[in-house]
Amino acid sequence: MRIQPAGIPLRIAAPKQRTLLAMLLAHADHPVPVTSLVAEVWDQRPPPSAVANLRTYLMRLRHLLSSAAHPDGERLVTSDGGYLLRVEPAEVDLAQFETLSARGRRSQERGDLETAHDEYAKALALWRGMAVEDVPLGPALREVVAHLTDHYLNTVEEFTEVQFALGRHAAAAERLRALTVRYPLREGLRGRLMVALYRCGDVAGALDAFRAARQVLADELDVEPGAELRRLHQAILRRESDVESPGGPAAVQVRSSHPRPRQLPREPAVFAGRSVELSQALDVLWRDAEAGAGSRLLALHGPAGAGKTALALRAAHLAGGHYADGLLHADLQGSTPGRPPLPPAEVLGRFLRALGVPHDDVPATEAEAAAVYQSLLADRRVLVFLDNAVDAAQVTHLIPAGDGCAALVTSRPMLSTLDAVQISVGMLDPPDSVRMLTMLAGESRVTAEPGAAADIARLCGHQPLALRIAGARLAGRPDWSLGRFGERLRDRRRRLDELQTAGLSVRSGFEVSVAALEEGVSPVKDVAVRAFRLLGAIDLPEVGIDRAAELLGVEAKVADAALEELMKARLLEPIGADRFRMHDLLRLFAAELAARCSADVSAPVGALTSVMIQHAPAERGGSR
User: Fold this and answer.
1) 114: burial class by Cβ within 10 Å (0-12, 13-18, 19+)?
2) Most buried residue, 10, 172, 561, 582, by most Cβ within 10 Å?
3) What are phi and psi of 4, to 5 degrees?
4) Directed axis angle between helix 50-65 and helix 15-26, to 10°?
């Protein structure tokens, strides 16, 4: 990060002051709350003196910046919402970069390639190294850096296509060699390097570039290169006269005038495990499009808190470079506390506007909007990410039909009626659970108390959401030992209270699942709800159909149907023929519901406790 107020280089030696200034610059002309600054500067591990130290850093920054005061007064000002840094757009390289790259893109779309080349070159010349590379990053700045890096690399890839069209392959190869070292997992860069080398006559170099890409993807992600990179490799092996770079033809790349939305949320900064599921997902998203086969469809399903969205975002970001015409995203709110599921018509309207349809031209009816949507996507390469679907009906009209498109859907229930590759997302295994905790709480703390870390992961039921909350709480309390926090979690009556923090709660996810069950139309929903509470009240981790019928006082076929409803709602998981298991944290929540609804369940619980005591060994050791 280079600061030059009034053209004079300003040296800020203290790392925490650089973090503070970067955070203020990232939110230039907007107040940043003190709590956000503290969390960023100390990476969510603030000492007791954090606020006092922050004021000292701000005072020093204000003094350093005073020689280049804002025309209307001080640059660094205190506001009701926190602290604000006044900056003019012309003073920030990023604003100039965005302006120049936009000009380059417009010239490219018009076919004015020489002008596009010059504008892109000026924009990229503003980059010196990596984004904010000399600044210690907290959670917010890590997201900023991820966004800036993606923006930069997209521009590089667009510039490279212009260089290819102008025949400047050697110059493109020189830049791409350096960037593939710095960003080794970016397949778009790898593919363009292969094209540049091949067109320079360096066939061996192009093949070496593919081998290097395959090796790093295997080492880092345990996946094979995507379909387009593999296809490019085969084209080079066949010595085809003209090869295509990933995302578009090798000939002159004149972008069409239609918008290319990039709506994906940030990729999760903390991600552990899931190598098998991620490989399966990328196999679908990177698969070659087959004429007439329709879009590729991937459906991730799993219980609350299992990390479906994080996995989907990871896969979508890795595959995003294969979809040159856009990345659409919608949170369908199928499992969002306090918010109703989004109607498909509303989502279609959003997508159509993002694809360039004027607001007034969006059809009023869902069927008409779906028809326009499918027409727009018919000849494009777009990835559609539909998060938190409530059922298959909500996504039917949102799944593109075009061969070049793909869709990624997440939901709690398995959407079995979709013609999709289905991937079940469950809990993490113990080593990956500890790895996630380490990323959040800090390696030194986990290394110092490995047994306590393993206990916390177990008490969280290896659930990613619970682990994320536990890690965030530990990060916010550097004075706590892991052993102390583990003791708090061991108290079953308060464990769910401990597993909540600002904006995140294990309990709220369970509440949505139970509410959906209660509001359903199944004829056995009341029995299913009673069974859920009962299993919590008597603390039974596993149950078979016969035992459930005995406990509920109903026929076996009714108990079977009720347990099936709980399974569909992801409140039970099947573990074999006619047997089901309830997750530890869900059992705690079910016990809370039983206590709150004691008037409804007190009689069955009281009458059946003796039955459970008599048969507990058989229930836990075998089936009935």
Assistant:
1) exposed
2) 172
3) -135, 70
4) 80
With contact defined as beta carbons under 8 Å apart, do 86 and 75 qualify? yes
Rounded to the nearest 5°, which phi and psi values hold at 410?
-120, 145
Task: Evaluate whether 407 touches 296 at the Cβ level (below 8 Å).
Answer: yes
Question: In the numeric block, which tokens belong to residue 110?
Answer: 């018009």
Tokens, residue 15: 């790392």
DSSP helix/strand/coil, 500: strand
- Phi first, then psi, for residue 385 (nearest 5°) are -110, 115
- Could you tell me the two tokens for 320? 């995003």
Nearest to 217 by CA among 209, 291, 289: 209
| Start-to-end Cα distance in the chain | 67
Which is it for the CA torsion 218, 219, 222, 225, positive or negative? negative
Q: Which pair of tokens denotes residue 104?
A: 């380059």
For Cα atoms 27, 28, 31, give the angle at the middle one, nearest 5 degrees.
65
**pLDDT tens, residue by residue, 268-289:** 878 888 889 998 998 888 876 5
Residues of the chain with pLDDT under 50: 69-72, 248-256, 599-624
Q: Among 477, 475, 431, which Cα is nearest to 453's?
A: 431
DSSP, res 378? T
Residue 153: what residue type? L
Distances (CA, A) of 313 to 157, 330, 397, 511, 570: 22, 12, 22, 24, 22
Nearest-10 crossing angle of helices 139-165, 15-26? 70
> In this structure, which amino acid lies at residue 230?
R
